[in-house]
Amino acid sequence: MDQVEDTDYQGALAIICDTANTARIDDKRYLNAETIIKIDHHPNDEVYGDLVWVDTNSSSASEMIALFAEATNLELSDYAAKMLCAGIIGDTGRFLYPSTSARTLRIASQLREHNFDYAELTRKMDTMSFKIAKLQGYVYDHLEVDENGAARVILTQEILRKYDVTDAETAAIVGAPGRIDTVSLWGIFVEQADGHYRVRLRSKFVPINEVAKEHDGGGHPLASGANSYSLEENELIYQKLKNLLKNR
């Protein structure tokens, strides 16, 4: 990966994709850019940037960029088409999520016309390391599920060290609880080095993004992220998830 120096941001254009709020932007040096563009498909709960393009009807920022290329007659390289296709596949869960529209499939089909190995791409996206497979086993073994289908699991720093995985790598097992027929919504609480928890929330049909907003987060109705700063807050979030199903 290229090394980006502080001076590179001076007078620069910063384009931030697929990031709903500033807390989730990885490199804060974007603030030094002259102009900031936000391209996102999440609800625009936090408005930032000089130019904001948000389309919540798109499955992904990748779909939006592909649409932009189509509308402006930009010529995509085969590699760019491959990466945009990967973005769409990833954000739609291989075209399983409700965000998959007829337009999504049309754009993906157009990208597929480029010269790249689609089978290899999808195979790599579906492959997990042995350590992630073992972590997934831990999730299934320790998943707590209430009588209405609200589930949760907590991954402590000790567990991350035991399985030799990083916080970022735990994203690979976020969908695992959803494969269980009795689970309707779930939270995965990942302890960070400073003691707070990154909370990944998912649901099959009940919106959970309002819960995320109440806990320093946000996102899509069925896929959101939040933050928790204590075990007590973990319990509160899980109770709110249970209430969503109990009150239906």
UniProtKB/TrEMBL annotation:
Coiled coil region boundaries: none
Entry's Gene Ontology molecular function annotations: nucleic acid binding
Signal peptide limits: none
Domain DHHA1: 159-246
Protein name: DHHA1 domain protein
Organism for this UniProt entry: Streptococcus infantis X
Top-level taxonomy: Bacteria, Bacillati, Bacillota, Bacilli, Lactobacillales
